[in-house]
Amino acid sequence: MKSIFLSASVPFNNRGTYYVKADAQLILNAVREFVLTFTPKYQIVFGGDPALTRIILSIFEDLGIDPANSIVLYQSSFFDGSYPEENRNFNNVIITNGNPGNHNESLLKMRRQMLSRKDLVGAVFIGGMEAVETEHQIFKYFHPNTEVMSVISPGGGALNLALDHGYATAEGLLDTDFELMFRNYLFRISEEQI
Asked: Is residue 192 included in any domain, yes or no?
């Protein structure tokens, strides 16, 4: 089965200015529509941010879909002992070797392993903070010719990413038709695989 990477979160108000132009409800709506669009055609790959893990599990529960085999969740052993309880709902939890005493190095190692997967056919960025920008950079390093999607109307790091890389359009700033947006992206990445 092919996989698609998701980088998403709701920005905190104590970490830079990402939250200033972020709309938490739009971020949640976009993540929900992402899950609806890409499951069960693709496995969803993401780093095990506790908040995102809870959000995704909640979406699967609301939809009545078993998330066990639909998700590939990455965690660093750096966080051993503090993994979210929700992880036990997923069959595919991959623990990467962390660097004890070095939080940033451990996250970088996890992200490089996660984003170097050969089965990734696309990446979607929603909301978020600096991690969205970092994960985009790493994804493009391993998959330079793969089209990515930055959902900009909810703001956050995905908006910065779109502005910095020319993904933003005037229409995109107001576009909240996430279903159509993701269906169009799904069509484009499906065409690339033919």
From this structure: no
Query: How much is the pTM?
Result: 0.94
CA distance 164 to 149: 13
**Could you tell me if 154 and 168 are in contact, meaning their C-beta atoms sit under 8 angstroms apart?**
no
Residues 49-61 have pLDDT tens digits of 888 899 999 999 9
| Number of domains, the chain | 1
Q: Is the pLDDT of residue 148 over 60?
A: yes
The separation between the first and the last C-alpha atoms of the chain, rounded to the nearest angstrom, is 15
Return all residues near 63 (Cβ < 8 A) that are at least 6 apart. Answer: 35, 36
**CATH code, domain with 70:** 3.40.50.450
Residue 194 lies in a domain: no
Q: In the structure encoding, which two tokens stand for residue 66, read together? A: 């078993």
- CB 79 within 8 Å of CB 100: no
